[in-house]
Amino acid sequence: MKGLKNGMSSVSRRNITQRLVVFASHLPSSSSSSSDSTSMASEKQAALATAPSDADAPTIFDKIINKEIPSNVVYEDDKVFAFRDINPQAPTHILIIPKVKDGLTGLSKAEKRHFEILGRLLYTAKLIAKQEGLDDGFRVVINDGPKGCQSVYHIHVHLLGGRQMNWPPG
């Protein structure tokens, strides 16, 4: 069959390669001397290498929620799961995700049915900021799509704090 090698299409191989790039971008770096700009560049590369695919396809976040991959959990309830980013961009960098993706791969994919969970994610960010002692301020970020530097297609809120944030951010 044309396009098949070892029973796998070139599209399937590309999807697996893209997922491996994203997975690797979320693993701890082997070198602790990497700068913030290097880690931001790798995030950008991971985002550009990843393309949104099947909305129901499992992501690394699904594996974290299911405890198949360890994480440093800071908050969990029946709808929301929050854990420390393994490649922090600030002293406090926490990812807040819905436990059920429900097709919500990114903010641009939100539908009316997602209204409640989107509000819950933001309110949870406020609760965690207080829990973390971010009384002087914090930043909430949602990356959307490849040009928005989204590398995992399971909507997530970044809670950043513990230092002076700069403007403009991007």
Structure explained in plain terms:
The protein is 31% helix and 17% strand. The protein is of the alpha+beta class. The radius of gyration is 17 Å and the shape is globular. The N terminus is likely disordered. The strands form two sheets. It has a five-stranded antiparallel sheet, covered by helices on one side. It has four helices and seven strands; from the N terminus they run ββαααβββαββ. The chain has a single domain, classed as HIT family, subunit A (2-Layer Sandwich).
Spell out the blueprint of helices and strands:
Blueprint: E1 4-5, E2 8-9, H1 10-25, H2 36-49, H3 60-65, E3 73-76, E4 80-84, E5 92-98, H4 115-131, E6 138-141, E7 157-161
TL;DR of this structure?
Residues 60-170 form the HIT domain. With 170 residues, this protein is an alpha+beta fold. It has one domain (4-161): 2-Layer Sandwich (HIT family, subunit A), CATH 3.30.428.
